[in-house]
């Protein structure tokens, strides 16, 4: 039986790779222009990091982590998200000492044991950015602008920014109490999961997508009636910043996001055409996470975006992606005695930064020309024994079919003239 990829995972095939390069390159370009520097953390961490960081009552920690033991019995987990690892690295390497504001970004695979469906995978890729050190709403606005700028640079249109505040330690308890009072009377109308959420963290109920829960959620108390002065001011200043830089948004008091560490600002970016899993990115402020992970109290804000969903949206919106030029030169031999010479010529061409290919299957010249045609190479070099004795080769322009003899020493100059 043929081996298959595990459920919820995907191969990225050579024919799809240009999209990924394009997306990764644009991400790096935009985030660096915004002053963020790339950081790469391991694919797995100590389980404790995520339990403490993401929160014990979240779906991620309760049922979605890929956790395993190493040979010494230590519990490790494939990272389900990028923020806790970045904050761990920030603390471990004392990045805050040199920079009171650390602006970091990452690109990498995340792992969540979710029920696979369109736009929801068990291994998926995210890019994300974190600004650690500033309490000011202007940095929330900047990070939202950075995220939106990536989507814009990719050519995406019609994305919606949803905005909310989820309060802080001071005001959230009052809101949680109000939610408990409200949902307490309607507990039997909620799904089994939400009844458990009611006991553990009623804020999580707001995230439930089930229809019967939605009916109850729709009329629940709004966070905006409970925000403390500090949180309300933060939210209003953020709105003012966004208004001033021309970013439009929709306020959604039900937006709570799936991770416990958010405080104050929470946002999500959605692409309507994606259907049920329509969030292409999201983020928010997490002022307690650094402290929670053992550092001194440090405010921070960040976002993460789902790369598969972005590519899917680009496809749906018909965005054209620049593709690889392909092989530029094919070196064909008329006899197998010439393969070493062909390899040597191919390598010299490649070293000059021009892609070159040759035959490795012992094929006839006719068949090699067919391969060259299939590769759509603009030039084929044909090595013939008689010509080689005179240090010459034939170069064929595949576009107009013109063939000419040139000296071996002139190949690079000829190709450079054609390509640079
Ligand atoms: P989160 O880390 O949950 O805030 O998610 C940030 C973004 O990652 C989401 O807006 C999605 O675009 C993407 N994402 C989250 N979970 C998955 C998943 N299981 N499969 C694919 N993309 C995902």
3D structure, described in words:
There is one protein chain. With 420 residues, the chain is of the alpha+beta class. It has 2 domains: 17-171 and 227-316, Bira Bifunctional Protein, Domain 2 (BirA Bifunctional Protein, domain 2, 2-Layer Sandwich); 329-415, Rossmann fold (3-Layer(aba) Sandwich), CATH 3.40.50. 38% of the residues lie in helices and 21% in strands. It has helices at 17-33, 47-54, 59-64, 83-92, 95-98, 137-153, 172-185, 192-200, 211-217, 229-244, 289-292, 307-316, 339-351, 365-375, 385-389, 411-419; strands at 37-38, 44-46, 67-69, 75-78, 102-111, 123-132, 159-165, 250-251, 263-271, 279-285, 300-306, 329-333, 356-358, 379-383, 392-397, 403-407. The strands form 3 sheets. Strands 1-5-6-11-10-9-7-8 form an 8-stranded mixed beta sheet, sandwiched between helices. Strands 13-12-14-15-16 form a 5-stranded mixed beta sheet, sandwiched between helices. Strands 2-4-3 form a 3-stranded antiparallel beta sheet. Helix 1 (17-33) packs antiparallel against helix 6 and helix 6 packs parallel to helix 10. It starts with 16 loop residues before the first helix and ends with a helix. The model has no long low-confidence stretch (mean pLDDT 95). Bound molecules: adenosine monophosphate (AMP). Residues 81, 112, 114, 119-121, 124, 126, 257-258, 279-282, 304-306, 308-309 line the site of adenosine monophosphate (AMP).
List the helices and strands and how they pair.
Elements (H helix, E strand, L loop, with lengths): L16 H17 L3 E2 L5 E3 H8 L4 H6 L2 E3 L5 E4 L4 H10 L2 H4 L3 E10 L11 E10 L4 H17 L5 E7 L6 H14 L6 H9 L10 H7 L11 H16 L5 E2 L11 E9 L7 E7 L3 H4 L7 E7 H10 L12 E5 L5 H13 L4 E3 L6 H11 L3 E5 L1 H5 L2 E6 L5 E5 L3 H9 L1
Parallel strand pairs: 1-5, 7-8, 12-13, 12-14
Antiparallel strand pairs: 2-4, 3-4, 5-6, 6-11, 7-9, 9-10, 10-11, 14-15, 15-16
């Amino acid at each position: 039986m043929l081996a298959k990829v595990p459920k919820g995972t995907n191969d990225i095939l050579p024919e799809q790779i240009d999209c990924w390069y394009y997306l990764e390159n644009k991400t790096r370009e935009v985030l660096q222009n915004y002053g963020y520097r790339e950081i790469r953390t391991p694919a797995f961490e100590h389980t404790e990091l995520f339990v403490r960081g993401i929160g014990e009552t979240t779906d991620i920690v309760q049922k979605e982590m890929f956790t395993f033991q190493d040979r010494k019995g230590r519990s490790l987990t494939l990272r389900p998200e990028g923020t806790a690892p970045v904050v761990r690295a920030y603390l471990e390497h004392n990045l805050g000492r040199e920079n009171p504001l650390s602006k970091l970004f990452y690109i990498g695979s995340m792992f969540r044991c979710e029920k696979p469906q369109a736009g929801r995978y068990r291994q998926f890729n995210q890019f994300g950015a974190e600004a650690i050190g500033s309490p000011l709403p202007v940095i929330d606005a900047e990070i939202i602008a950075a995220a939106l700028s990536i989507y814009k640079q990719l050519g995406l249109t019609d994305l919606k920014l949803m905005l909310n505040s989820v309060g802080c330690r001071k005001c959230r308890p009052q809101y949680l109490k109000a939610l408990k009072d409200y949902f307490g009377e309607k507990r039997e109308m909620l799904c089994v999961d939400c009844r458990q959420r009611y006991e553990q963290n009623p804020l999580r109920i707001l995230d439930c997508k089930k229809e019967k829960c939605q009916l109850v959620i729709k009329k629940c108390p709004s966070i905006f009636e409970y925000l403390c002065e500090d949180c309300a001011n933060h939210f209003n200043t953020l709105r003012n910043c966004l208004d001033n830089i021309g970013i439009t948004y929709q306020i959604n008091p039900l937006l709570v996001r799936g991770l416990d560490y958010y405080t104050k600002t929470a946002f999500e970016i959605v692409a309507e055409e994606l259907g049920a899993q329509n969030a292409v990115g999201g983020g928010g402020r997490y002022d307690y996470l650094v402290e929670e992970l053992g550092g001194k109290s440090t405010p921070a804000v960040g976002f993460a975006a789902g790369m598969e969903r972005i590519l899917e949206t680009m496809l749906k919106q018909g965005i054209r992606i620049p593709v690889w030029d392909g092989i530029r030169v094919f070196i064909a031999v008329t006899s197998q005695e010439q393969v070493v010479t062909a390899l040597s010529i191919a390598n010299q061409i490649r070293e000059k930064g021009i892609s070159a290919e040759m035959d490795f299957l012992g094929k006839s010249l006719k068949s090699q020309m067919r391969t060259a045609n299939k590769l759509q190479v603009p030039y084929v070099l044909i090595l013939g024994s008689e010509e080689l004795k005179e240090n010459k080769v034939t170069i064929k322009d595949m576009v107009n079919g013109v063939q000419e003899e040139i000296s071996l020493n002139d190949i690079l100059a000829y190709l450079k003239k054609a390509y640079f």
